[in-house]
Amino acid sequence: xxxxxxxxxxxxxxxxxxxxxxxxxxxxxxxxxxxxxxxxxxxxxxxxxxxxxxxxxxxxxxxxxxxxxxxxxxxxxxxxxxxxxxxxxxxxxxxxxxxxxxxxxxxxxxxxxxxxxxxxxxxxxxxxxxxxxxxxxxxxxxxxxxxxxxxxxxxxxxxxxxxxxxxxxxxxxxxxxxxxxxxxxxxxxxxxxxxxxxxxxxxxxxxxxxxxxxxx
Length: 216
Hints:
By secondary structure, the protein is mostly helical. It has two domains: 35-51 and 89-196; 53-86, no CATH class. The protein contains eight helices and no strands. Helix 1 runs antiparallel to helix 7 (126-154) and helix 6 (95-121) runs parallel beside helix 8. It starts with a helix and ends with a helix.
């Protein structure tokens, strides 16, 4: 993804301003469904954090039956599997969970700002907009996967992990989401720089033509 974005930004920087401003009203339209689903996932995560299901008795009964088959190891297996199935409430209160959601919301807001800016500038042709969609889509798809994984980590019965393993997984998700945020910022800055450069070139060209017209 990093190589693709770097290559794309270089390609845009080399291109000259040609033709009329393109209509960018469809920018990122392909990803609207993913965005909405991602927001729904974040909302689902908040529901999980505030309203944890209390189905421990059913889980314990089922695991007890499995443990009964473990001759001579009933107590050990029962306690172990219970610790895997019952997510400690302190895990759900882990500060990085909220930070992950906040980072994801920030990424979406940043792309909304970028989208509006590109619509106003109108200096990217359809092929370039396709490249932008692909780059943005790759980041958003990865964010979607991370949020889905986070929900699994903090949801009872989704993953068989101990508390320390869950915390480690949450930290990994946090680092990956932070990397996405850094990548999206870099991409946005590059596009903003290219937009400003093209706008400057366009203004200079128009000024030169105006002066040439006056001198004729």
